[in-house]
Predict the 3D structure of the following.
Amino acid sequence: MRSAGKSPLLARGAKSKANLRKGGPGRPKKTAEQKAADRKVKEIANKLLGDPTYVRMLKRRLRSGAIQPGVEAMLWYYAHGKPTEIIETKQITPVRVVHEYANEDK
């Protein structure tokens, strides 16, 4: 029987950090240099996406099927951020939820 907090995938003696409360070890804060680099990448991506020549060539690649989806997706991601994800669910038949102990006497 495994003890709680240990995973067979962790190194011997290492403990899982999955159950730590908020504020524990996590992703380190970005430095000023990293933030400046992020702003520069965003600025360059916006300039490319706003360039009429780029847009014309992009349309040409899209129409010919020669576009590299990963490159284009990352460029848009750098310029405008992660797109919102919309998940639609459609319930075709109505569902009635009944608790399994609803009819038992107390």
Summary: Helices lie at 32-50, 52-64, 69-80.
